[in-house]
Amino acid sequence: MIKKILHTSDWHIGRRLKNHERYDEFEIFFAWLGDLIVDEEIDALVVAGDIFDNTTPSIRAQDIYYSFLSRLAKSNCRHVIIISGNHDSPTFLEAPKDLLKLFKIHVVGQACENPEAEVLTLNDESGAPELIVCAVPYLRDRDVRTFSAADDVNNSESSLIAGIKNHYERVFAHALKLKGDSKIPVIAMGHLFARGGKVNDDDGVRSLYVGTAVEVGSDLFPEFLTYTALGHLHSPQKISRDNIRYSGAPLAMGFGEAGQNKAVYILELEEDKLLDVKEISVPIIQRMERIKGDMDEIFSALDFLSLQNKSIWLDITYTGEESPGALQEKIDDYVKNFPLLEVLSLRDESQRQGENLTQEISKSLRNISPLEMFELCMNKNDIPDEQRKIFIP
């Protein structure tokens, strides 16, 4: 019988911050997560999309992912269910699914022509059903949208929302049929934007659909569901009801999330009843801080942070009334005294006759390869995988 389920999402393995690799952070997080699953005797793990940060993850990103899955296969966790997010390549994620299924790791990367196929019935060691999962991946335009070239923006958006709702309704209807009068818990998974969800500045959450701001209401998720595990938004939060939640990203995706609590959720069940949802804070692996003020305030903040004796990445904004002149050189010279402090982003927003001069110490265009830039454009325009293969072998 399923007693404990862990909900996590938006790993974004391979993500960089201002041109800084973060593989060490990911490895530490997965070591912590693996220990938590063992210590808490988790029966099932659900991962609600955005496994990787892009559709062509690096070899090291893949190694981190598969090493973690390998550890899970040897643990007490009986079921793992993974869906794709808008950052993932559905075909890439699904490529080893038949092999992974042998280890009770279930991957749903692409929306099925028959949505009923996205309903998984998972059995206990005796072969009896113990969990039903509505594993709905990120639904792309081509999966659900039905409109003509003559449709205006409003009609197009309505068509998209209607397509998403229809897809989920068919999934839920089949799940309810399978559940019948039993006490089997039903867990829903989705990667979407639920109305009322909160985003943060600089958190990397991008629009799911080009040219539209599609949101679905919590009424999409029927009452018979034991819990709904959502992905896409990077802050842990509940939507409308206590059993509809985003677990959020485990690492801060940008300085807008500096200091924000990161979490996973552990669900405690008794048959198909949700007894409790425990929020487990993810340890801060790389500290990030924002500093804003005039030069004296910036230097004072740097002095204070240097006393923490920890590696800290910094986002600094100068807002003094006078132009500091050679701002970058002044900050660089001062930070040289503190080897554990590193300035990743520096902006000059001094008040100089209305002029707002912004300097970014970050990944500039000259640091992005043509292939990376091309992939960013394809991601923004939601280019299907089959079309990508024409341009990228």
Taking strands numbered 1, 2, ... along the chain, how are they ordered across the largest sheet?
A: 4-3-2-1-11-12
Separation, N- and C-terminal Cα atoms? 46 Å
- Please summarize the sheet with the most strands: 6 strands, mixed
Q: What is the strand content?
A: 15-25%
Architecture overview:
With 393 residues, the protein is α/β, with parallel strands linked by helices. 28% of the residues lie in helices and 23% in strands. The protein has helices spanning 23-39, 59-73, 90-94, 97-101, 141-144, 153-179, 295-306, 327-335, 370-380, 385-391, and strands at 4-8, 44-48, 79-83, 105-108, 119-123, 129-135, 186-191, 227-231, 237-239, 241-246, 263-270, 273-281, 287-293, 312-318, 341-348. Helix 1 runs parallel beside helix 2. The termini are far apart. The relative contact order is 0.12. The model is unreliable at 353-364 (pLDDT under 50).
